[in-house]
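2024-03-11 09:14:02 INFO queue: dequeued item RNA-directed DNA polymerase from mobile element jockey, len=662
2024-03-11 09:14:02 INFO validating residues
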Amino acid sequence: MLKRTDNFHEVLKKINAELGQVESKLGGPYIKLYVKDELEHRKLTKYLKIADLEYFTMTPRSERPIKVVIRGIPPETPAEYVKESLIEEYKFEIEKVAQLTQFKTKRPLPIYQITLKNNEVNKGIWNVNTLMLVKVTVRKFERKTGTIQCFNCNQWHHSAAGCGYKPRCIKCGGPHAKDQCTEKPKDVPICINYIIPIILNKRKVTTNWQTFKNYLNSNVKYALPNISNPSEIEIHIKNLTTDILNAYHNSSRPLKPNEELHLPPHIRDLKTVRNRSKKVWQRSRDPVSKNSYNIAQARFRSAITDFNQTSYSNEIEQLNIYDGSLWQRTKRLKTKRSNIPQLKNPNSNLPAHTNLEKAEILANHFETQFTSNDIRDPNTENTVINSIAKFNSNSSPNKFKNVKPSEITDYLKKIKINKTPGMDGITNKMLKNLPLKIILKLTNIYNYLFKFNYFPNCWKTARILPILKPGKDPTHAVSYRPISLLPTLSKLGEKFILNRYMKHANQIKIPIPQQFGFTAQLSTTHQLLRVIEHIHEGKANRLATAAIFLDIAKAFDKVWIQGLIHKLIAYHFPPYIIKIICSYLQDRYFTVAVKDTDSSSRKLNAGVPQGGILAPYIFVLFMNDVPQQRNITLSLYADDTAILAQGKTPEQTLTFPSKITL
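2024-03-11 09:14:37 INFO prediction written
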């Protein structure tokens, strides 16, 4: 099985030129190579080693060792004695004898696993019915179900015996064997097949949050660092992220199967009685104990059923239309999560089978989506370029309002804990449980962001979850909508930028009154009422109303970043806000996640970050200079636009489109 590469055709040509015609066939991420005999097999493996190509071999069934289990031998018999008896009585060539044990108690069983060389003499093991003058039975050894993992490279579907991959350490992922690793065990383990931290499934673990706080207080120094450049900001953020994740892993444990965390005391007591009765019966095997255990089990199950039914009824009764709980529950019941089927590659029109192939196809599509529209105007471009160049050449004092710890605590009180984390793996629940020491360190870091007008690169990578659009073909990448997940610490930093941005925006009356999107106490309903009221008012005055409704395709993803910076300069925002927003928008990247697999990183060449706190407000600023004309009513909600005009007759409104200049 040869690892498939982009130049697989050239590799196969060289193999055929060196060894003659070798039959090959596609097998998922591999190329299957077939040889006729053992001599060709040796030549092929030798060539692959010399050419430094990665591969693994599949042993033919005729060459695999014979594995059997023998039942009926007294369990106190040593495995070596069983091996000697088989050799002495039957002249078998034994490779290994191992006694099996009971899984939980580790008690030796009267079952022995025998491994023999595959030859005609050893095939006589199937005819053995006595050993050491005791009647025995021989059965085929049944391997546990599951995927085989190699101990050499830690890849799947093959063993170390036939592995031609380079060794990889399971501890650190380095190119060496495990016993040669000098690295100390990590507090946060990594998955070496993806080189990412292993994040515990939040739904299947329980966390002691007091232990979480104690760990951070004990293991993180309080000293506030004196940061001298943006590179040091990246280092301190990385270290703090690692400390928070270490604290989470140290204070969390996986839930046991069917474990209930919030049972009332009387049910816990019934569970304790049930478990005690079960242990008594397992030790004694007394029928009376078995009867007591059955009674305790029935009482516990009945109590659990009543508790679950009561809890469900109470939850349903508390649903109402005012706090949104009814709609959230309905959405949860109606939402159908489906796997992404085999996507068609738009270049080759071949289906993608693996999650990685699907993720790459979606990433290619979204990469083209995050680009500016090709609408060029040299005069406008020159104006924007000159404006930004002039701004950058004028150095002004960097005056900004310091971030206070109270700003962080006020924000953390309002965030929801059920939000999915970004690439860093830090959840809102972790942020809510941060001790004061960590909040002070975060305050110090955020103040340095404003001091250097710098937004960290480690917060600029989004993980995109593709969501199928309703009624679209699931086999095409264009049918999926990107949902971006950003780091939670990034959102916290965006909140502080937004607070300072809004102070100036409110002073200069941004957005315009016609814009209802992302504006306090205004919604789509209010804008719709305004449009309907305008139509009814015209009807009352015997005026006909004509309307044009515009929806800009991919509006958030197509924003011209330089044009947005130019508008910030034109609206005379404070220089430190312009510079940090410029840093926030530039050099952003994304990956696409399909299940547990991420695509390669791609760059966003345009657009404002989806899922960001600051992004919607600066998009509204980008739309703020939309043209307005006399006798034309403009209604906006973000990028959705309604343009209305009225006339005494319907014919008079036919001239309406010619009056609009966009």
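2024-03-11 09:14:37 INFO annotate: Residues 287-317 form the longest helix (31 residues).
2024-03-11 09:14:38 INFO item closed
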